Amino acid sequence: MRAAVLRAYRAPLSLETVADPVCEADGVVLKVLACGICRSDWHGWVGEHPKVRPGDIPGHEYCGEVIEAGPLAKWRPGDRVIAPFILACGDCPDCRSGQTTTCRSQRVPGFGDRGAWAEYVSVPHAHNLTRLPDSLSPALAAGLGCRVTTAYHGLTGRAALQAGEWLAVHGTGGIGLSCLLLGQALGARVIVVDVVPEKLAHARALGAEHALDARQGDVAAQIVELTGGGAHVSVEALGIEATANASLRCLRPLGRHVQVGLPVGHTATMQIDMNALYMRQLSVFGTRGMPAWRYPSLLSLIETGRVDVSPIVARTVALSQATGELRAFDGPTAPGVAVITDFAA
């Protein structure tokens, strides 16, 4: 099969013919229909993610068509499915309690397992998969990837965002944009923060009540003033120190900070304003991924039109363009995300 292979950090991905994947007993092999390009992939490409090594195939936000199913898998050839990026074992204590995102034996394509920037991908633990609704295009399904699902679980399963509450979103990449769209669908009043004027204008056009430029003054103080005391929930969607502290400082007493941005490599350890956390008695939630059993509730919101996630996907690209998309993460990016839909070019 054709695949994009990481041969050296920060170097162009190598387009190669590699061995087809092997189907595991409890898994399936998918023909990849689409796969997203995520900032997490960039962390691996630059050498900051501990599980990404030269020789790996990236890609963790995918959907596909089953072409082979193992004897323990419930799926059949021809089924079209969406894959969560955390493939939970289903048997450990965390899985049995429903907390599959903290599975002790989890596997993640592109981060330890072969990823989906390829014509085919092997998916173990296929009980995690969800059928792809006919109304959802493969590109949009892949666009849900780790960004919409993680945002949804962070807002609802972790911070318990309520209608009428103020939600601040720091960073309007794929995760931040997802938080904006989902926050509005859940009835929240949303403020976004970024440094790219084009992305701020895009957020306003999508209904953000306020869009603040982080280069222009103390945005945490501005949010406190605009909301009459601070946001109820604030999401950090970049994984860097400046936005993490702005997120904490913009909250009202008893507010909830949600850490969605990935702190890894040089950002893994930060200086955090613990005084703000202590004096305002804040809650801090880490969140990563979404349990597979929650997919139907999110897909129901999309299928019934309660939330339109189509603005997430800005463009579809070929596999040969993946390196250029990764390079773009070195600086401020344009609104929306890219999804690979052509694996032959």
Automatic annotation (TrEMBL):
The keyword Coiled coil does not apply. Residues 10-340 form the Enoyl reductase (ER) domain. Pfam families: ADH_N, ADH_zinc_N. Gene3D superfamilies: Medium-chain alcohol dehydrogenases, catalytic domain. Its cofactor is Zn(2+). SMART domains: PKS_ER. One of its GO terms (molecular function) is oxidoreductase activity, acting on the CH-OH group of donors, NAD or NADP as acceptor. The keyword Cell cycle does not apply. It comes from the Bacteria. Keywords: Metal-binding, Oxidoreductase, Zinc. InterPro entries: ADH-like_C, ADH-like_N, ADH_Zn_CS, ER, GroES-like_sf, NAD(P)-bd_dom_sf, Zn_alcohol_dh. The lineage of its organism: Bacteria, Pseudomonadati, Pseudomonadota, Alphaproteobacteria, Rhodobacterales. Belongs to the zinc-containing alcohol dehydrogenase family. This is Alcohol dehydrogenase.
